[in-house]
Design goal:
Number of helices: 5
Radius of gyration: 20 Å
Structural class: alpha+beta
Distance between the termini: 35 Å
Low-confidence stretches: 1-6
Helix content: 55-70%
Number of strands: 4
Shape: flat
Length: 153
């Protein structure tokens, strides 16, 4: 894949996406790809246009999705929980590795998952700050202390 640069603060790309959003009233991935097909588009270089490479990349995404769909039931005392049999671990030369959950270091897996949870909480808190309302206030009241507690682990 080509997207190696950080685009979060790229005004040109943000402007292009905003223009597409305004044109259709929403933003869809297909609209972005269609706009990026034009070699003069500032979005063009962010995509893989070689169909052989893009096809292989898509098959890798499909394989990863297939791996993530396999579940096992884990029972602890009287509670049975369905969990992914394979979990994503450190990246390898193929772009990602999955291991059977019973064979990974629980501490590192939990810390990785917690980092993702904290990222989601941060996004929710940012949205709540940007869109104040009764629900947003409740979210901040509940999630802020939870986030602080998770960070202390």
């Amino acid at each position: 894949m080509v997207i190696a640069e950080k685009i979060e603060n790229n005004a040109t790309i943000a402007d292009e996406l905003r223009a597409l959003e305004l044109r259709g009233g929403h933003l869809r991935a297909g609209d972005v790809v269609d706009a990026a097909r034009d070699t003069g588009s500032p979005l063009h270089h962010l995509f893989e246009w070689d169909d052989d490479k893009a096809g292989e990349a898509y098959r890798l995404l499909q394989a990863a999705e297939l791996i993530r769909r396999v579940k096992i039931v884990v029972s602890v005392e009287d509670v049975a929980v369905s969990v992914n049999r394979y979990i994503s671990t450190a990246k390898d030369s193929e772009g990602g590795a999955y291991r059977v959950i019973s064979r990974v270091n629980g501490e590192s897996v939990i810390r990785t998952e917690l980092a993702q949870v904290i990222g989601v909480i941060d996004r929710v808190l940012a949205i709540a700050a940007a869109k104040p309302c009764e629900t947003a206030n409740a979210v901040v009241r509940i999630l802020s202390p939870a986030r602080d507690g998770l960070l202390r682990l």
